[in-house]
Amino acid sequence: MWRTAATMVALLSMLLTATATATAVEKKQQYKNAYATMMYMGTPRDYEFYVATRVMMRSLLRLHVKADLLVIASIDVPLRWVRTMEEEDGLKVVRVENVYNPYRANNPNDRFKLTMNKLYAWNLVDYERVVMLDADNLFLQNADELFQCGQFCAVFINPCIFHTGLFVLQPSKEIFKDLLHEIEIERPNSDGADQGFLGSYFSNLLDMPMFHPPPNNTKLNGQYRLPLGYQMDASYFYLKLRWNVPCGPNSVVTFPGAVWMKPWYWWSWPVLPLGFSWHEQRRNTLGYGAEIPMVILEAVLYISIIAITRLARPNFSKLCYRRIDKSAMVYHTGLKFLAMASIIAAYVVPFFIIPHTIHPVVGWSLYLLGSFSLCTIAINAFLLPTLAVVTPCLGIFGVLLVMACPWYKDGVVRALAVFAYAFCASPLLWVSFTKVLGTLQVSLEREAFLPSRLNDSPPPPGFNKIY
């Protein structure tokens, strides 16, 4: 009983908040239709999705769409982000209370915990039609004809399940209240997120006719399936390395799948070629002013590391190689482990500290510079061969060139080329690894010789160089 009362209070609060925000939208409304997206907090990637939202909305502005651009933002979205979107991007921001998701136990991924906020799109009753979008959409051309669709329209990327990354709806307070009620009674939901819930609510969409825009710009009634060209799965592109979707206009690309391979991450290209297209849209709209200071700071830091480690080479080596009278085996093993760990860290650490949403060319350049600079610490501290230590760095640069090559016939040929490159490069990596271990072993066995190399005092008389 107490739970039911609490749920009713929360429901009433959401309805009041939605009514207030809808009134706020009415004061700013310019068009009778809107492109809308949502934003909420509480995931490790909040900033990245904030940037993605701004880029998508600015790209719509560049396409001269005849609709309002609106963000349904939860009340915990930082005010500075809200002001930036309103003042710099010209967006309309609607602040809402988070819709409680009772299905979270079925999908513990934080990425989907508040996706039910998407239901607020049905409460935007001042608009005739709303195109609801996820932030991982890339618009290739104006798609305003979508506003001619009926009360609910979506694309079936999966043969049996429509995708909620883009759908058209007619706002309705009655449907909005009914959707909230269905959440309260926990309507069956296959994935614990908005897609499973809406797929259950509009379960007959697969049997509906295909949408074709009427030539006289009139709005249709009812439910329709949208052609695949309005929500092209990026994975289709990677098979042919070109678009081959004959049904409907090739207007919108979506990037479903692993969140760490979304197009705004610098490492997604050239692994996923379309990531470059997304960054070209960002370069032409939002720019990279927020990340550039950090990039410059990191570049200066890496160059300084290269210079300092070279100048301090003798002192570094003295710390690593010194005569140990007891537990020589433990010392040797520990030194080898430390040397290999420092090399591995040199290739891992830069990956995590580079700004995630920087342009891929800048990101990969900074990564290679950072890896090389950190490798110089191991090279100068343990007196290792430079070429053997930086071989993985050269290998990464090579595979980037192989993947970025623009002359592949299709994705299969590209994949085979990457596999052939990896097959040919693997022996070189193994040779480099064994050479590093061999150099460490020789240096450890000839510690008596090292002091003279390091401008240190000569070994005591009678000391055996063979150790």
From TrEMBL:
What keywords sit in the KW lines? Glycosyltransferase, Manganese, Membrane, Signal, Transferase, Transmembrane, Transmembrane helix
Q: Cite a single GO MF annotation.
A: glycosyltransferase activity
Q: Which domain of life is it from?
A: Eukaryota
Q: What are the TM regions of this chain, as residue ranges? A: 292-312, 333-355, 361-382, 389-409, 415-433
Give the matching InterPro entries.
Answer: GNT1/Glycosyltrans_8, Nucleotide-diphossugar_trans
Kindly indicate whether the keyword Chloroplast belongs to this entry.
no
Task: Tell me the leader sequence span.
Answer: 1-22
What protein name applies here?
Glucuronosyltransferase PGSIP8
State the organism of origin. Answer: Beta vulgaris subsp. vulgaris
The organism's lineage is:
Eukaryota, Viridiplantae, Streptophyta, Embryophyta, Tracheophyta
